[in-house]
Design goal:
Number of domains: 1
Number of helices: 2
Radius of gyration: 21 Å
Number of strands: 7
Order of helices and strands: EEEHEEEEH
Helix content: 10-25%
Strand content: over 45%
Length: about 120
């Protein structure tokens, strides 16, 4: 199957010093599914509501909250977590995940290399 996702994602970010940022984002997505290949029978496709996947695009509203925390002793390293939701806006059904939570580390490599270079000179 070929999947094409187009979206626009305005966001509002508030920063507190260098160690914290909170972002509220509101993504609006349109998903197109084409060239679907399956071994389901026509009856199974109808039962699982998959028979019209390629006919109409699916439209979602995906609001999310993103928080980023920095570390005083680890300049250039931040922890970020995101909590997001997905609401199907179009009338055509598709089974989709409605909640997502993720976390990770961000590395500001230029800042880290500049600090390392500055430390080696001292």
């Amino acid at each position: 199957m070929n999947v094409t996702k187009l979206f626009i994602q305005p966001a509002f970010t508030v920063r507190s010093r260098r160690n914290f940022a909170a972002t509220l984002s509101s993504r609006h997505s349109v998903i197109y599914l084409k060239n679907i290949s399956t071994n389901y029978t026509n009856q199974e496709l109808e039962n699982y509501k998959l028979d019209n996947l390629a006919n109409l695009p699916r439209v979602f509203w995906e609001p999310s909250i993103i928080n980023t925390f920095g570390f005083k002793n680890l300049l250039g390293v931040q922890f970020e977590f995101q909590m997001g939701f997905a609401f199907l806006v179009s009338r055509s059904f598709v089974d989709a995940r409605t909640f997502n939570f993720s976390g990770g580390l961000l590395f500001d490599l230029p800042k880290i290399f500049a600090l390392a270079h500055h430390s080696s000179k001292n």
